[in-house]
Write a structure and sequence with these properties.
The chain is built from 13 helices and eleven strands. The protein is an alpha/beta fold. The strands form two sheets. A six-stranded mixed sheet has the order 6-7-8-9-11-10, sandwiched between helices. Strands 2-1-3-4-5 form a five-stranded parallel sheet, covered by helices on one side. Helix 2 runs parallel beside helix 4, helix 2 runs antiparallel to helix 5 and helix 4 packs across helix 6.
Length: 338
Amino acid sequence: MHSVVPRLYQLFSHEDRLLILIDPDPDSMASALALKRLLWHRLTCCALAPIRPITRPQNQRMVQLLGISLTPLGDLNPGDYNRKALVDNQPSHHESLRNFDYDLIIDHHPRDPLTKARLVDIRPEYGATSTILTEYLREARIKPSLKLATALYYGIKTDTSNFERPAIEADVRAFHYLFGFTRKPLVRRLEFAEFNIPMLGYFQQALNRFRIRQSRLYAFLGPVNTPDILVILADFFLRAGEISWTIVGGIYQDKLVVIFRNDALRKNAGRLASRAFGKLGSAGGHAASARAEVPIEATQLSPIARWQEWQDFIIHRVEYHGRLEPPTKAEILAKPAV
């Protein structure tokens, strides 16, 4: 176990005001809560600041049920805080994070060469940042409260996708340790808040539009209020036994967003997303899950094009440029200009 807590405590004094920045998801929120608990009574104040709104119903429910106090970054003056920390992220990962000098960065994603702070603890072999913070708590001999333990437990659970994604023994140890402090009905309520009533219209739309090629299911929704619904539907359709790939797209803030999911059996969603859309925008991800975002102008399609045209565009990019299988002669003749 890494011995970091003494160095962590040396970073701060009682006069300090700490701002913890997060890109809000279960792992980052849980990690920020744990860091705040570790520094309890060691600071003048500590604020948790998400850099963007929380739109996913499960994450909204987590904030509500666990009583997490958050202040959006835009609603406070960062200059009022002389210390800055970043958890479950690195400055290069989002433009809103690049404007600060950090005292502390804790993360489990691969380290960016430009990441720097007075103390950096990055462990890319770990499945979740919540695992790292759980180790901090144990090293400091701090017993987590029911709500903090539940948050960390849920953070590990979601970031490892119930240990379907890469994880190590440390994640399992932390998960097992936290299990004894959690309330199982609370965890169930968090997990069952996957979507809300307004999202049901998107389900109906996707069910009317989906198209299957081989064992791959495609669906295009058109404009969406949040790309989270694309993730929810990609996961939903993958539950069909005959389906091994789901590719769900929509338009969000002048971008085509495409979500990839697969059954993780000798497949690589990140590589497919990069091949299909990397030259047009940003694309990448893990073996079983990936995401692509492409500016509308790069598609050479009109924003008001029929949904069938957008869906055909996605299918062509995935099947042809993603090199899933050789295109037929008819597909070559009919392929879009892009």
